Amino acid sequence: MNALWLTILLILALATILPMRGGAFHEHLAQRAAAVFESHGLTVRFEHPLVLPGGGTNFVDLWVTGRGLELIVEVETTPRYALTNLIKAQALGQPLWFVVPTRAVRQAIATRLRKHHPKGPPIDHRLLLPDEVGPTLTHTLAPPEAQPRNQPPEPPEVTPRSPLPSR
User: I need a surface site. Which of 61, 71, 126, 156 has the fewest CB within 10 A?
Assistant: First the structure.
């Protein structure tokens, strides 16, 4: 048991001093998303290790917590690892937000996930462009009574007409 804790502590220590995997563009997108989460008072951990139910450890690009939220954020510059990351989030039972650089990458990931959706309980996941992270987060953190409901619009006010003159 002591060896397991030592391993976890070593992984945590390395995760705090090593740069993210994925290159400069990947890191830029991750930093940009992290700034949005932090501006809403949330805690963000980069390349955070999470223990999987089977006992293994896997890393997530961003682990976001606070204000009643626990969220995995994966930055995907290609669709290559999207399905793997969805399966990881599913195993952890956590919602997953993909941050993608373009609409084309978003569409490619959506297509891949539709074709090869993993078995098991569905997981809340979203595919977001960098500029969509802030508004989506604001909506997610808003109390239910502040969120718009899908109700039909109010009918326009009808002004009463003056009666027709009698002949």
Answer: 156
Q: Give the integer Cα–Cα distance in Å for 45 and 53.
A: 20
Two tokens at 2? 């002591």
Q: Which pLDDT tens digit goes with each residue over 108-140?
A: 999 999 888 777 778 899 999 999 999 999 999
Sheet of 57-66, strands arranged across = 43-51, 57-66, 69-75, 96-99, 125-128
